[in-house]
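stage 2 :: seqdesign
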């Protein structure tokens, strides 16, 4: 049988803690460098990251004890809800229009309803035997309703809301008055969440396999026997961690275009040349050095913010240059 090894959980857990933290710090760093006002989406990243880090720690600790499934399941719902809200409020800072405004609020409501419903359901799954939730799997099976049934429903609605979030910006971007290449670039940035959805779909398929659905009936789940509760749970929780970790990074990458631009080869070469030129001037040329420092700082700022597109219709938010939604659609 193929279990998710403790070393794999440790490696992935640490990786997501480090990369998630870097992504969120970089997100705030970019906003600071651009003197951009922080939005709701930025602040939602902080509790989302806190919960994702907590999930990674729970997985690392629980990979050997097999007693932390409940803690993981309880935290993953608000974590994924906050990540969904981060994406949606980020979209609301970019796009305009009556149709988009309605659609975005519907998805925000759906995300909140999904999170609140399953948070309550998971707490109520064992009735008055709440302690069974964080004890052994045997106790969980004896005192609680079928948690796999709950989790497959959770996963199905999770994927459905994610698909809505993924699809929503596509027609908006395609209607923008900009070159096709830029449209595709913007779509590529906004659709990074596809990776997280893929992890969510994978987890949902595993849940269906566990339940023995006629379409996906199988004796194993990712190499683990379907009747091996501990092995199956380890696989399902692992993919839950994958979904949250990838999603946390993806929601920040969409805002980090200026960060990557500022670390381009060209900007690094310019900085190196500026530093060596200033170093060779000597202390007797302070006024010239000051002038060159000003130029170097200006070039650095340009590398961070990028060239601004002409015309007032463009909205440049955290490095994603887009035009405002067509005026005919504005409400």
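stage 2 :: out
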């Amino acid at each position: 049988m193929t279990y998710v090894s403790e070393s794999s959980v440790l490696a992935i857990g640490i990786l997501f803690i480090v990369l998630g933290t870097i992504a969120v710090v970089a997100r705030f760093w970019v906003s600071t460098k651009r003197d951009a006002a922080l939005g709701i989406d930025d602040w939602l990243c902080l509790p989302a990251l806190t919960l994702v880090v907590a999930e990674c720690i729970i997985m690392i600790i629980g990979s050997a004890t097999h007693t932390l499934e409940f803690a993981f399941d309880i935290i993953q719902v608000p974590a994924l809800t906050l990540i969904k809200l981060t994406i949606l409020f980020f979209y609301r800072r970019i796009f305009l229009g009556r149709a988009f405004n309605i659609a975005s609020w519907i998805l925000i409501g759906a995300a909140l309803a999904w999170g609140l419903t399953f948070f309550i359901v998971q707490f109520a799954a064992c009735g008055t035997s709440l302690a069974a939730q964080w004890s052994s799997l045997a106790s969980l099976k004896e005192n609680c309703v079928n948690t796999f049934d709950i989790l497959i429903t959770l996963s199905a609605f999770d994927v459905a809301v994610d698909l809505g979030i993924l699809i929503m910006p596509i027609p908006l971007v395609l209607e923008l008055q900009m070159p096709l290449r830029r449209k595709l670039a913007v779509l590529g940035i906004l659709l990074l969440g596809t990776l997280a959805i893929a992890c969510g779909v994978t987890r949902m398929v595993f849940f269906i396999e566990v339940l023995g659905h006629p379409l996906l009936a199988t004796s194993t789940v990712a190499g683990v026997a379907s009747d091996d509760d501990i092995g199956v749970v380890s696989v399902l929780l692992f993919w839950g961690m994958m979904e949250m970790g990838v999603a946390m990074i993806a929601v920040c990458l969409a805002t980090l275009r200026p960060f990557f631009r500022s670390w381009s080869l060209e900007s690094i070469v310019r900085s190196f040349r500026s530093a060596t030129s200033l170093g060779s001037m000597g202390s007797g040329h302070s006024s010239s050095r000051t002038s060159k420092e000003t130029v170097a700082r200006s070039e650095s700022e340009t590398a961070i913010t990028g060239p601004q597109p002409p015309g007032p219709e463009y909205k440049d938010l955290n490095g994603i240059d887009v035009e405002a939604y067509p005026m005919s659609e504005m409400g």
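stage 3 :: structure notes
- The radius of gyration is 24 Å.
- The chain has one domain: 6-261.
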